Amino acid sequence: MTGTAMRENVPTPRPTPTAPRSYRFPAFERVTLPNGLRLVVASVSKLPLVSVAAVIDAGASTEREGQNGVAALTAQLLVEGAAGLDGAALIERFERIGTSVEAHADWDAAMVSLTVLAERLPDALGLVRDLLRAPEFPEREVARLKDERLAELLQLRAEPRALADEQFARAVYAPTARYASPAGGDAPSVRGLTRDLVRSFYAERYRPGTTTLVFAGDVSVERAAGLAIELFGDWRGEPTVASSRAVDISPAMRLVRIVSKADAPQSEVRVGHAGLPRLHPEYFGVTVMNAVLGGLFSSRINLNLREAHGYTYGAFSAFEWRRAVGPFMIQTAVKSDVTGAAVREILNEIDRMRREEIGPDELTLATSYLDGVFPIRYETTAAIATALSNLVIHGLPEHFYDEYRMRVREVTTQDVLRAAQQHLHPDQLRIVVVGDPAVIAEPLAQIHGAPVEVVTPDGAEVAA
Amino acid sequence: MHAEVDRLRDEGVTDEEVARAVTLIETELIVALQSAGDRADKLSLFATYFGDPSLVNAQSTRYRAVTAARVNAFARERLGADNRASLLYVPRDAQPEATTQELAEAGAR
Fold first, then answer.
1. Which of B31, B38, B39 to probe the A interface (max A CBs under 10 A)?
2. Parallel, antiparallel or unpaired: strands A211-217 and A38-43
3. What separation in angstroms does the CA of A265 have from each of A259, A280, A331, A332, A438?
4. Closest Cα in chain B to A51
5. Could you say which of B36, B51, B54 has the minimum Cβ distance to residue A379?
6. Chain B: residue nearest A91 by CA?
7. Residue among B26, B34, B51 whose CB faces A98 most closely
């Protein structure tokens, strides 16, 4: 080896670590402008950076009937033309100040976000103003983004994971519920979207009263408020009251549905049911319970399916937290010939979770993880801005992040048992599998105690 | 693609383009210093390659000192047709001779 060369290049002495400092989520302040625009500002001056997130109450759940996908399309179009600049010119303006901007909408909000050197904040916020107040929605870009979405939907049809997610949502929610179809819209709804629909969605939902500017980083409340008044103070307009779309759940009995993919070597498995709304008094008990069941690598479901049985590389569970009732879902991919056995193990783990208290070690493992990972999650100004955006979107208590770790540590084994008994519903499970019916229909029917449904990737029923 | 590389080499870049690139790089550098993991990566990179982790602190200044003239000198020296390799992935049943011919023509320009 090159011992001599190594010695020539004498490394600097290793620093010795100091005692760990205690962690606190950054303090933040709120300001509301006379026009209703709200600000949330967390001053964190570790580095000369500021993250800005504009959070607009213009998510997919505020869309009108028959316009599924208009929220996502509108948000994406903000960066495709504004204040006399086309998409390419806008990108160049952001690059000049050393950043790029992201705009998208999910179920509960539209979001425009960026991170920039603190000295460039006024320029950056000026551009954000252009996007939010003077978007142009060019006809050509409307058509292009619609085509992109349609092409994406076509690709997803051939992708078992996406197909499983989509069909699981359709199995959980009633057909009329917005959550039953994808947030970005499905093919028929996207084809029906027009520039006029985008413009009227924008006019109804993108208003000062529906918008919050979140700042995190090297910026004072005074500076953020001053810039916001200068750039957004004369923004006017009242939002139209959002139509509240149904979140009806499908009839509550167990269902087993195979999405047919002939000769599939493996099955994509989804097991779950309607979960809980984000603002729920038992959020912490449920979060710890899910961590033990399938939220962590060392969770019961993963240890069972992956480590003990070798059915899969990974199996996980999650409550998807939305304003309304989001889904609870366990997901995994297994070899076709063990699909039935894997589903049976998943059902066993759900039953065990509801039957007996977890051990103290399991509790400590889950709570230590959630407690310990918390500070690492919020190292960056962008992550802090996202956390504060969620505070706004879900109307979380003001001290939510301050108290998070304490609340996690307070969860007991009895709390976990109660959360499992109250919020896991074995009799209402939706078991959706994308796979080869010739191999998996029989074992799944045995578990179900009845014949299973088989559908095509389009959701059309296949005659037995 | 060859034409764009040639254009950059022959016509050069402007001060404005360099300023834009430097600003983007500088933001990326500072953003990367936020998380303990990325910070460790940067320290280890400069310690491993240059034996001096504290070089991380000099990066912003050094990038800011880059001029269009330096970029253009580098491009003229390094981006010539004599210093290029082209690789094309083609479908299995494509005509290999035609593809080779196309590559040769593009490279010879």
1. B31
2. parallel
3. 14, 40, 17, 14, 12
4. B31
5. B36
6. B20
7. B26
Domain total of chain B: 1
Q: Which residues contact A275 (CB under 8 A, 6 or more apart)?
A: A319, A320, A321, A325, A326, A327, A328, A423
Question: Domain A255-386+397-455 belongs to what topology?
Answer: Cytochrome Bc1 Complex; Chain A, domain 1 (3.30.830)
Q: Which of A21, A96, A218 to mutate against chain B (most B CBs within 10 Å)?
A: A96
Q: In A, which residues are within 8 Å of B18 by CB distance?
A: none
Question: Using CA atoms, how far apart are residues B43 and B23, in angstroms rounded to an integer?
Answer: 21
Q: What is the pLDDT of residues A131-190, one digit of tens each?
A: 999 999 999 999 999 999 999 999 998 899 999 999 999 999 998 899 999 999 999 999
pTM: 0.90
At B88, is the pLDDT very low, low, confident or very high (cuts 50, 70, 90)?
A: confident
Radius of gyration of chain A from Cα atoms?
25
Q: How many CB atoms lie within 10 A of CB B70?
A: 11
Q: Distance between the two ends of chain B, CA-based, in angstroms? A: 12
Rounded Cα distance, A249 and A127, in Å: 42
**Which of A308, A384, A429 lies closest to B34, judged by CA?**
A384
- Distance from the Cα of B49 to chain A's closest Cα (Å) equals 10
Asked if residue A50 lies in contact with residue A26, where contact means CB atoms within 8 angstroms, the answer is no
Does the domain spanning A29-232 belong to CATH 3.30.830.10? yes
Amino acid at A203: A
| Helix, strand, coil in percent for chain A, rounding step 5 | 50, 20, 35
Any idea where the domains of chain A sit in the sequence?
29-232, 255-386+397-455
Band the pLDDT of A6: cuts 50, 70, 90.
Answer: very low
The DSSP symbol for A380 reads S
The model's confidence at residue A464, banded by pLDDT at 50, 70 and 90, is low
**The three-state (H, E, C) secondary structure of A118-159, written as one string:** HHHHHHHHHHHHHHHHCECCCHHHHHHHHHHHHHHHHHHHCC
